[in-house]
From TrEMBL:
This is Dihydrodipicolinate reductase. It comes from the Bacteria.
Length: 358
């Protein structure tokens, strides 16, 4: 590609501030940008990234299919929401038109175990048109490749335990609301926790219907089992509200969360496998109190036991850098919905992204 990899940006919110700048600094070209927010539409992307004028104006998302079909970029970055159903249309547009796409939608890291019908349809279209669709982000490395790399130095594993926390303030209002931030404990129980007070059969029915609401670790556990060759026999999740003893201001929600109300939630996913290895992973997303920070902690129990703790990871920037570093992998991958445990491990890109194409 003589003029560099051509990239489209779908979603011009908080995460795109980094993804678009990182794309440009890695030698790729932004050729289009889309968003549904009228306050963003019409802006040059430089007003979002803070870099020099780019000559690319954010267009309304309703024009995405028409424009993507016309300009045919090499890849489209989708940075909007957290559930596959919410990014389904964007991914289908790319799949229908033979455009590679990467999303940081958390469910998309391994949607086969939570939204198999939607995933299969995207996969079918992508195979027909010869493009690749995938999900990536912070979890790709810090909840996925980091753990399986440590597993490669382990003789026998009995249990994998993980816990990761993040500030919902960093990711936008949709994510904050999805975590129950601002709800009373009664509202949280009715609107969030009640969804998991069901039998295994009822949960599977929701999965088959495409209406299941997975926590982030639900899909990560599926990714880990696929990478490690483990056969899932049962998987459950439980969501518990997080609270603070003091009022907390949320700029994302535009409100002060009173003491005792939900600031977010903890979601614990337990996966049992035929091979006897159990995975217990927990993600805690909430509006942080002043003394709180991101933390990522994993323990592999067995022979030997290994623990890794990362304090204050720059979760937003790491998510966006992983996405941009994955661009060559997605272009190089076979057609279809290809989850990243089937790709090479995420690597640092010193040169322009095009230098890493097959």
């Amino acid at each position: 590609m003589e003029q560099g990899i051509r990239v489209a940006q779908y979603g011009c919110g908080k995460m795109s501030v980094y993804t678009m700048r990182y794309v440009q600094e890695k030698g790729a070209r932004l050729v289009a940008a889309f968003d549904a927010n009228p306050q963003v539409v019409g802006k040059d992307i430089s007003e979002i990234t803070g870099s020099g004028p780019a000559g690319v104006v954010v267009q309304d998302a309703s024009r995405a299919e028409e424009e993507l079909k016309r300009i045919k970029p090499d890849v489209c970055l989708v940075t909007t929401m957290s559930l596959l159903r919410d990014v389904e249309e964007a991914l289908l547009i790319c799949a229908r038109n033979g455009i590679n796409a990467i999303t940081i939608c958390e469910e998309a890291i391994f949607p086969w175990n939570s939204a198999p019908t939607i995933t299969a349809e995207i996969d079918r279209l992508a195979r027909e048109t010869g493009c690749t669709i995938c999900g990536t982000g912070y979890q790709d490395v810090f909840w996925g490749n980091l753990i399986t790399t440590l597993a490669g130095a382990t003789h026998r594993i009995t249990k994998i335990k993980g816990k990761s926390s993040y500030n919902v303030e960093d990711y936008g209002i949709a994510l904050a609301k999805g975590h129950g931030a601002g709800l009373s404990l009664e509202e949280f129980a009715a609107e969030i926790a009640s969804a998991d007070n069901i039998s295994d059969g009822e949960r599977q029915k929701l999965i088959d219907q495409g209406t299941f609401l997975p926590s982030y670790m639900w899909n990560v556990n599926g990714w880990l089992c696929s990478q490690l060759g483990l056969t899932v026999t049962r998987q459950t999740q439980t969501c518990v509200p997080q609270t603070c003893q003091e009022d907390l201001n949320s700029s994302t929600l535009g409100m002060t969360i009173p003491a005792g109300k939900a600031t977010g939630m903890s979601a614990l996913v337990v996966t049992e496998t035929k091979e006897g290895v159990t995975i217990e992973s927990e993600c805690i997303g909430k509006v942080y109190a002043p003394d709180e920070c991101d933390r990522n902690e994993w323990t592999l129990q067995g022979e030997p036991e290994t623990q890794v703790v990362i304090t204050r990871p720059s979760t937003v920037e790491l998510t966006c850098a992983t996405m941009v570093n994955r661009i060559p992998d997605v272009i190089n991958a076979p057609a279809g919905y290809v989850t990243t445990e089937k790709m090479p491990r995420a690597l640092y890109r010193q040169q322009s992204l095009e230098a890493y194409l097959d």
